[in-house]
Structure formats: structure tokens, C-alpha cells
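Dear support,

I submitted the protein below through the web form. The confirmation email said the job was done, but the results page showed an empty box. After a refresh the structure appeared. I'm attaching both so you can tell me whether what I see now is the final result or a partial one.
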Amino acid sequence: MNNRNILISGASVAGPALTFWLHRYGFQPTIVERAPSLRPGGYAIDFRGASLRVLERMGLLPEVQRKQTRIGAITIVDRNNRKVASMPDGFTSGELEILRGDLAAIFYDATRDTTEYIFDDSIAAIEEGVDGVEVRFERGTRRRFDLVVGADGLHSKVRSLVFGKESDFVRYLGYYVSIFTVPNYLELDHAGLYYGTLGKKVGIFSGGPASEAKASFFFATEPLDYSRRDSAQQKEILREHFRQEGWEVPRLLEFLEKAPDFYFDSVSQVKMDRWSAGRTALVGDAAWCASPLSGMGTGMAVVGAYVLAGELAEADGDHRVAFAKYELLMRDFVNKCQGIADGGTDWFVPRTRFRLWLSTQMWKILPYTPWKNMMIEVPLKIGNSIQLKDYSARTDCADRLSQVGP
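What the results page shows now:
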């Protein structure tokens, strides 16, 4: 097999999912992660259709099911906590929902004994040669790999180094989002509340430990100039945009400083004509971020990792053949998943008073219309819209390779 030594940037979801399959097929993966350790906590992520089948083929579905959130009723309330409307059960959680940190820990536990993990470092430079890639890390180390994969998210360093500047590929959808853990002082039991005003929406959800809840803040604004490494600055931006809001907002903002898992970023999509160049490929949000409003990002990442590893195995490591087939198999699925968020943002967080009124009326009548089923069935149909190939025969090849050695 050619190109067995593969470097992956990013240890959240797409990277460990990819390394799981690469090892199974006889490759030697290495993961580098900027953070000093796995990032805990985080928002809830959904699985639908094909992504569930990938988890099953990994043998990890039972463990993920044990950690699922099982959030049921989502109620839309006014500033006095009176019910205004409700969302259909399963609308926000798909067929299976789990906290991002819990999923990352499951993937890490399944791969840490077979993968070299390098924490607290990142890729600084990539130089491709005829038969490999020379990589320089931020801490000064230089190493040579056969292939490099960027699984490093919306602001991918690999994408910037190999494909071009971020602004060429990232499309801002007009909103920012912040999510962090708070005490479950409202005593929610696997349920959630949403409160919205013009251009803003705040939510509280309980689906993990009974003592904890997740707070989410969405707000519309022009693109902001801030440091992605400065959480203090980001917290002040959030406070400034929600300082005058009522409901539970003031109390939620009080928990900002002690939040162990503060997250802040733009609601954006990544649009690229190709996800590979030479010996480098992208997977997950680095290649096709659909935005948090799609509910499909993690599912796409897990499916993409499965397809990329499988095609590399099927091509005996020939990256030119494998990368081309990977893109061919994933393109239509990605376009459909991204389409869920296109046009839907202004209904979820309306930016005009008419849209805000219309959105409220829509949620009020939704439980009594056939639309409530469509809002669950359409994402599920899209989640099932990719046919997964069976790469299991390649495991036999990997077993033979393991007997021969590197």
C-alpha cells in the first residue's frame, strides 16, 4: 500500500473519525491539535440517516446512545416565560443527539492506542514534494508525511496554507452564535426554552447531567472585527449585544466568566470547488461547513471521514484516485446538507419586525399542520441521500499488512 503515513490536523470529530478508519485499513495516522487537550463540553450535535450507519459500522453506536441527550419538548416563550409556541419533538435533535465533547471523548478513546496524538501544537508550513509532504510545526519540529488532511474546522489552517485565504471560501450568513454551559437553575428535564427578539434568539437546554444546562445566543450583525483567540473580547461583544435584553438573559450572562466551555463564532458556510490539492485533502467543516443552523455538520464529517478513508484503502493509497472519488461521492450530499441552512436563518432569527411577527405565527400554528412532520422528515431524507459503500474487504488487507509491519 502506498502513502501509509498520514498527518491529520484537528482532534475534534472529523479527525478522530478519519483516523479510526485509516488505522483499520492499515494506514499510520498522526493527529496534531492546537488545543492542549480535548475540548470538553460544547453544544449538542445531531445524527441522521447515513451518519448513524457509520457509527454502527464503527461499533460505537451503543456507546454514543448511552451518552445521548434525549431532549424532547422545545418551548418558545415571551419575556415573562409564558408559552408562545412549541417546536416538534425531534426538530432540533435528529434521530440521535449527543454533546460534542462527549462524542469527541468517545472517538478519542477508540483511537488513542492506535494513533499518535500531538496536542498543543499546529501546522505552520506545508511543502509538497514529489513523494511526500514536508511539514513544519509551530513548535519548530519538522516531519515528513505521505499525505496531509485538514480536519481543523471553519477556520482551517491547512485550508489557508494550501488552498488560499479564508475569505475566498467562507460565506458569512449574517449571524454570530455563542454557546456555553450554565447551572440548570430552571430545573429543565431534557427540555429547552427559546426566547427571541428582533435579530436575536436565546435558548436554554438540559440534556446532559441534571445539574447542567446549555445556553445559546444568536444575534444578527454586520461582520465583526475581533480576535478568535481572545475569549475575553468575545464575551464583551456578547454582553454588549444583549445588555438591554430581558427574560433570563441577564442571569445567563452572569455565568459567562465561570463557563468552562465558552464558544463564540460566526454562523458561516464553507463553499469550495474542490477539497483536495496534490497530497492534501480537507474533510468536515474545513471543507464544507454547513453552519450550526443546518443540524448536519457532524453527520457530514463522520460520513466524509468514512468515505475518504475507504477510498484511500480501495485505491491502495493512491491519493489522486482516492481524492477524486471521495469528492465525487460526497459532493451532492454536501450540497443538500448545506441547503438546509440556506434561507432558513432569517426565519430562525428574524431581522425585520414583519418577519418576527410572521415567524411567531408560524410556530403557533405549526403543531396543527402537516408542516411539523416535514420539518423532521426533510432533514432525515437528506441524511439518507448518500449511499454508503462497503469497504470492509479492505480490513483483510490491513490485517495482512499488520503481520508484515511498516
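Response: this is the final, complete result; the empty box was a page-load delay. The chain is about 35% helix and 25% strand.
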